[in-house]
Write a structure and sequence with these properties.
The structure is a homodimer. Chain A is an alpha+beta fold. Chain A is built from seven helices and twelve strands. In chain A, a hairpin with a 2-residue loop joins β11 (240-243) and β12. At the A-B interface, β6, α3 and α5 of A face β6, α3 and α5 of B. The first copy, chain A, binds a DNA duplex through α6.
DNA sequence: CAAAAATTTTGATCCTTGTCAACGACAAGG
DNA sequence: CCTTGTCGTTGACAAGGATCAAAATTTTTG
């Protein structure tokens, strides 16, 4: 019934400008104000909410945005704090989690390149976001972005679509959390991760796992020990192979059967 | 590890016009085409996405909408079927659930008056909606509605806000499912229901529960037996009183402590 | 490169919750 | 009125996963 609360508390940086701010176009290292955005050069242009924008809208976005980098383990923003920015993860991976007062933790998701941060446009952050790897975020002022979407219906529509998609994923995760065994949870998680990588890179049986077993446990409503045991068992049964920083899926069919909706 | 799959299969009616279609303005009983909407007369105008509309937008909505009634236990729409309509629940309560192939079920939410159905605007229904009580829905063609919001930014904004809110609720529910004990789950459920009724009627310690213990269990990731035992225990400890079709909260402070975010 | 810290794995044991079974209350319907 | 079905409750028992403890492994850091 416990879940680590004593994680190494890295300071919150998103919204306080302590992160190394750097422009993509001119790679100046220190200056706190960072350079302008260069969407033409963006890695996730095809996957993010930007995919549906026209040149006019890109220009408007570039005007209010900038790129920010976070080292691994940095806190990008923190549950309960004012939400100064929203943004798009352009590289790296984040852990999104909610903390209970007694230290139990629920990971509500992992953000991957192309994911939008701050979909709810809420004044306060509803969860904490920590960098699992070095991460880059294309960041906008929340208020500015909120005003912009009122003038750019296509952008608002893209945001609505993204929110709907997230809602659907959240409901699927409810099924996983509420009605699946430990083994099924792990299978669903691995297949889910594979599918997300497939959208970014190609389909592959090699699934990198930038998060710890504890993170996986907190995502699936299990303890570290159970996660470890189940993965070891799957490896013993030749369903997967555990490799440094990830797994390789041997019996995808079996995993998909276990994860079946 | 099981969850009733053999529920009395009432036919799906939403999108097939078997429900009694009736206009609010002219109460004609049978005609399949139902009368026009009269938003001025709507009970949930203040709670629903309509709250932010101007007269022009109301008129546009009235043009594509109609009111439909469902008897208790009717299926409003079914997981996997084409989503012909979206709509607003104006009275009654619905159970929204996802079914696993082996019969296990996860209730992803309960719809109350003012709630929007079909937020995702997806072509296919991602879950099944069943009436827990007689229910009325203010219904729009999905495609028509989807086109309308592109012309009425305020309506789209309202929808985005609603989707964001749902997403936040879904993430809260993940914490409940993944990281709370049976007792805490029940407490969170009761406090949650109380808060939802408070939005509609006033705040009250009397909380009607139109759903069965099985529904509650499938919502919280518990069995009927555990739900029953926990509620009986709470009643024995004078935290609640079980009354016909609901509960009365005696020790709200204790429940809130248990449900604490 | 060695020491310290974090993470992962494994084992033993416990306990919360699930499973199985049965009963009573109640409502619907013949 | 009796039957049938649904729902809620209770009890006995089992088990999946949690907890506690510690070793093995990997990563970080001085």
């Amino acid at each position: 019934m416990e879940s680590l609360a004593e994680k190494t508390m890295t300071d919150t940086v998103f919204g306080r400008m302590e992160a190394s701010v750097r422009s993509l176009s001119c790679a100046s290292q220190k200056p706190p104000q960072g350079g302008a955005l260069d969407c033409a050069d963006c890695d996730v242009r095809g996957q993010s909410i930007c995919q549906a924008l026209d040149p006019d809208e890109f220009e408007a976005l570039e005007k209010i945005g900038r790129t920010v980098s976070f080292p691994s383990k940095a806190t990008v923003f923190e549950q309960g704090r004012d939400a100064v920015h929203v943004g798009n993860l352009t590289s790296g991976a984040l852990r999104l989690s909610k903390l209970l007062p007694d230290g139990r933790r629920q990971v509500v998701g992992f953000a991957m390149p192309g994911d939008f941060l701050g979909l709810a446009l809420a004044k306060t952050h509803m969860f904490t976001a920590d960098a699992l790897t070095p991460a880059k975020i294309c960041q906008f002022s929340r208020v500015g972005f909120s005003e912009l979407i009122d003038e750019k219906p296509r952008l608002m529509r893209a945001l609505l679509e993204a929110a709907s998609h997230e809602l659907t994923l959240a409901q699927d995760q409810m099924v996983v959390l509420g009605r699946r065994t430990a083994e099924e949870k792990i299978a669903a998680f691995l297949i889910g991760m594979r599918n997300r990588y497939a959208r970014i890179h190609g389909a592959s049986v090699h699934v990198p796992l930038p998060m710890t077993r504890l993170d996986i446990g907190d995502y699936l409503g299990l303890t570290v020990e159970t996660v470890s045991r189940m993965m070891t068992r799957m490896a013993r049964e030749k369903t997967i192979v555990i490799v440094p920083d990830g797994v390789r899926l041997l019996d995808v069919a079996r995993l998909e059967r276990l994860a079946e909706v």
